[in-house]
Specification:
By secondary structure, the protein is of the alpha+beta class. It has helices at about 15-20, 30-35, 85-100, 120-135, 155-170, 180-195, 205-210, 250-255, 255-270, 290-300, and strands at about 5, 45-50, 55-60, 60-65, 65-70, 80, 110, 140-150, 170-175, 215-225, 225-235, 240-250, 275-280, 305-314.
């Protein structure tokens, strides 16, 4: 079968998004509207891969100084497939991708795969790594994701005690649309005091994404009466619910607001998702593992999934 690779253009957005919706290894972050909220920061060079006339894969990518990257504005990516393909066909696709980018005078290509729990076919994930190795890609780094398999029964005594304490103080968990209050009064102060850092998304950016993906990006908030004491955002795609931007006020911390919050998220997510992704646990300043954060995630039953990135010269 003939493989054709074309650059992404706006006219292909519907086809691209349809593939993401039905792919075996995509996430919410790979829809074009999600990618394009920060398009001014990157030079996009995403590719669309066709077998004959059928779009079977896309590669979200950007270029800098002649180097091709799995889009660094996204957490992960790599080639995203409509369905599980034979390893021989995947190898042909990767070979053609290398030739395609080399013809653009690129010098190297980096691929950051989605973790295995995002793949509807886990065998395809491991086959993909084998294909990359056979196409002269080398592993260059590894990210470790902490992820809870659902359903799960919380065993940690501290978490059980914290939930009861929050309930004793009449805390409650609801969805909220008040992103501005959470961002400005909880999240940003938390990140600045702990890491001297800001959220990856500005309030304007996250508000745009929240509006662009109704029901897919949600703010879960903990309240006492009408006062927001803490919260986090969830990003939904397929079998995975990803949590990000977790924070609480000083009153929220003293009332164990986050213990109640995660009990509710885990309980309500179990019927609809197989995994609760808690992301990686690194210090945003130095990139080193944050052992306190790792321990906290493991107390909720999270297991570790190591995912390598790959690089090849062209």
């Amino acid at each position: 079968m003939q493989i054709r690779i074309l650059p992404y253009i706006q006219e292909l957005q519907k086809d691209w998004d349809n593939l993401i919706e039905n792919s075996i290894n995509a996430s919410l972050i790979h829809f074009r509207n999600y990618m394009q909220y920060h398009q001014d920061r990157f030079v996009d060079c995403s590719a669309c891969i066709f077998l004959e006339d059928n779009l079977v894969a896309v590669f979200p990518a950007e270029i800098q100084n002649g180097k091709i990257f799995s889009h660094r504005g996204l957490t992960f990516g790599g080639p995203i497939f409509l369905k599980a393909l034979k390893p021989t066909i995947i190898q042909e696709i990767i070979t053609e991708l290398k030739l395609y980018f080399k013809a653009l005078n690129s010098t190297s290509i980096q691929i950051h795969l989605a973790p295995v729990f995002y793949w509807k076919n886990s065998l395809a994930y491991y086959e993909m790594q084998g294909v990359l190795a056979s196409c002269n890609f080398l592993p260059i780094q590894e990210k470790v994701y902490q992820t809870v398999s659902l359903p799960i029964s919380i065993k940690d005594r501290g978490k059980i005690w914290g939930k009861k304490k929050a309930e004793k103080h009449h805390l409650r968990v609801n969805y909220s649309s008040d992103l501005a209050f959470f961002w400005e009064n909880i999240l940003i102060p938390n990140l600045r005091s702990r890491f001297n850092a800001n959220p990856t998304h500005t309030l304007e950016e996250i508000s745009f994404l929240h509006k662009s993906f109704p029901g897919k990006i949600q703010l879960w908030a903990v309240f006492k009466d009408d006062n927001m004491l803490g919260g986090c955002l969830t990003f939904s795609h397929g079998d995975v619910l990803h949590v990000q931007y977790i924070g609480a006020t000083e009153d929220g911390k003293s009332h164990s607001a986050l213990d109640l919050l995660f009990y509710i998220i885990i309980e309500k997510s179990a019927p609809n998702y197989k995994y609760l992704s808690m992301g990686v646990s690194t210090n945003p300043i130095n990139g080193l593992p944050n052992q306190g954060l790792v321990k906290w995630k493991k107390s909720w039953g999270a297991s570790e999934y190591s995912t390598p990135s790959w690089e090849s010269e062209l």
